[in-house]
Amino acid sequence: MYQNLLYSQMTHEQLIENNPESDDITNPPHNIHVVRDSETILLSGQVIPPKDYIHLYDSSPYKITNGHLAVKIPCDESFQPQLNVLVGQAPNLQSISLLLIEELSKPSKLCIYHADLEETAQVSHATPDVKIGTITDIALQNPGIRAIELPPTSSITIGVNEIEPGAEEHEH
User: Fold this and answer.
1) Could you tell me if residue 9 is inside a domain?
2) Count of domains for the chain
3) Average pLDDT over residues 32-41
4) In sequence order, what E strands does the chain have?
């Protein structure tokens, strides 16, 4: 107990001085900025035409180095999403691999999926070694041949934890 009391009275500077990994605390690598931006977007009633998309998030000129998203969208009877979540740096967006949360999903209705937003995230429908790369943009795409109207409670939550400079704008 006496050691715990002494530890709790140490200053922040002493903790950093006595921590061999303190350089990571005081000088994050590559100019990474810790942020906490969380956006919940209610999508009920939105119509996405075939082969079209809704652009949802843009962090330019910063790239997202750490984040997370959760999306509640229409799915088929085998829990497969009817929409793609596209991430990357516009115009180079790719469909990110989504993980199903089966306990909160209803097949043929709405399913909840989530994914980590990192450059090393996997591209869906690709070989395992294909990665997303730089992330500045997030969009929701209808890959089908019919328009999709999103039902009540359809939503996406995007959480961005870390960003860094270096996402140069592409000429469009």
Assistant:
1) no
2) 1
3) 89
4) 33-42, 47-48, 53-58, 62-74, 84-89, 92-95, 99-100, 110-117, 137-141, 148-149, 155-165
